[in-house]
Request: fold
Amino acid sequence: QQGDPVEAPAFLAASYACQRNTPQPGHNTLLTAALSVLAESAELNGDEGRGLAFRRSEGLLRSLDRRVQGLAELRGLPCLGDHSRRVIQDLLENGVSSEVEETKSSPRYKAMKLLTGIFGVGVKTAKRWFTEGICSLAQLETSGHSLNAAQQAGVCYYTDLNQPVSREEADAVSVMVEGVVHSVLPGARVTLAGGFRRGKMSGHDVDFLITHPDEGKEEGLIHKIIACLESRGLLLYQQNTRNTYRESAKGAGRPSSSMDRFERCFSIFKLTNDSSYTADNGTGSGGRPWRAVRVDLVVSPISQFAFALLGWTGSKLFERETRRWAVRERSMSLSSHALYDRNQERYLRASSEEEIFAHLGLEYVSPTGRNA
Ligand code: GTP
Ligand code: MN
Ligand code: MN
Reply:
């Protein structure tokens, strides 16, 4: 049966990504991969607004429950601007988008991707280096720029850190982290967050959220964990911060702010190719019997755990959209620490993610549906 496109079901027509179920990888990977390149290119140019527009298009397409075959099927759907629709049309008609191909082969995009692929190097630094003509690691090395500790580690482990972390490797890191956490604080709980909690099969790092059922027991925990990891020779690099979060009478901080103030540690683990870990790709570059893996450790008091879990599960767009929904549709500000109701002028407590969605008037979306 041909003819008119079917009316989009309400949850697909929803304009906020947090109102939709978005599985990984979705049924339109050709389209989402292309839009992701354009989003990334805009982000690397420092054009956040344009990047966000492409991310929203990408998210919408990933949430569709079948493969799109013609532009007409997208009629009436939100989040798809003229530019995205042109790219989609190109892909549907020709199998490729000339704009995406040009972007991918442009010297600027390639250099910016390579430079921001160094741990510790953000868009601003990469831009400055690129302007000076630096396009490769070799050129960076001979440029005479002094690198900070994070960037030095980033260059040193560049190949390993740019090789995706597999599920098996994430599980092996989980075993290591759980062992260490339980040895320094019995009863503490370790939860896998980030992309792996969303069901992704690979990631750029492994994210963990750590808490203890007795509020206060978690204070200072990050230092004990780091000391134990170091004594076992498991850390190649770490940078930690202590908890600076305080509830204020005026309510949670800026809703758009994505930074939180938990005790945390951005680190690089030394994952050895031993019995707990049997993946074939388990060796690092240069034939070492171990590889470097990026690991984020975040410690949350139990009273904030649900918010921290929601905040550290992602995806980045899902988080952004949830915060935007909270402010615009509910006059609430949501962070990884708390939810503040601006009308009632009070914090809303929650001990599970389900309760937070309920406070926000959103239908619950399970972690595997948050891949916007
Ligand atoms: P891959 O690691 O690339 O597989 O994807 P990911 O979704 O796990 O990304 P990432 O590890 O960068 O981040 C995981 C989640 O933590 C995302 O939802 C981020 O928004 C969130 N996140 C990352 N850094 C911060 C931060 O400094 N503060 C807060 N609150 N959240 C952060
Ligand atoms: Mn991650
Ligand atoms: Mn991370």
